[in-house]
Amino acid sequence: MIQTNKIWLAPMAGITDSAFRRLCLKHNAGLVFTEMVSAKGLYYKNENTADLLYHTKEERPIGVQIFGSDPKIMAYSAAKMTEKGDFDLLDINMGCPAPKIVKNGDGSALMKDLKLIGEIVRAVSYAVKIPVTVKIRSGFDKNNINAVEAAKIIEQNGGAMVAVHGRTREQQYRGEADWEIITKVKQAVKIPVIGNGDVTSPEKALKMFEETGCDAIMIGRAAQGDPWIFERCVHFIKTREILPPPTFKERIDAALNHLEEAIAEKSEFVGIAETRKHLHWYTKGMPGASEARAKLNKAESINEIKEIFALLLCADT
Question: Which residues are identified as catalytic?
Fold first, then answer.
């Protein structure tokens, strides 16, 4: 398994594109993941789906995440995704709670069919040469908490690691994550177990390690607008010292760097459209941020955005 620090960027649809991954790695994320990629989309040669596989040489270590529910299609697509040998692991998404994903029997819908989980993991494990990992939830709903059973099946069928989000599909992202289920999974299997859910600070990262015994932690939503969270967590776990948060200028500089990277990859129009939500997150809590975000929604060029940010920084002085 990959040797790196133990604070990782969780895969997030529409969020963890190449530009954002590079920024998180710059701030000491130990491992990053692509957005989830449709196995059927690759199987049927959908161009937009293939675009999600784009990454640079600087993005290492990196995992690619796939979703679907047909073992044969999953195996075929997994082999295609990894044939170049430039991904470090392949992750199977069995945790996405989005209605359109669950409706098709994919993502967290798989938590309702343990037999199918085993078939998918076994098929994909045979099809690729890199470690196959799986991201699951605590269960589908409160009456079906079966992460321990799912993890055992994943291990038995060739899974090299399992990440556990301590919420059910029914919860989506509401309420508190149940870290106890992460502990139970860790105690039940020998493969590494990754904790996920409600790690929003260095103190909470340390607490999750201490309470669950997990082998690493995935941070998702807390990294939105705050890629510095990885270096703060790593530093705190090593030293018990809290690093200061980024200044407003550092946040704006990061936002512009993020935008420039996206534009270089995708064109100005697409780069701005896909990065706009990130720009909003970078400005959270800054004086005049609401007005700035309203302007950002209408901005059509990087020069306009630079002017908006310059005015925002002036408002803070």
Answer: 96
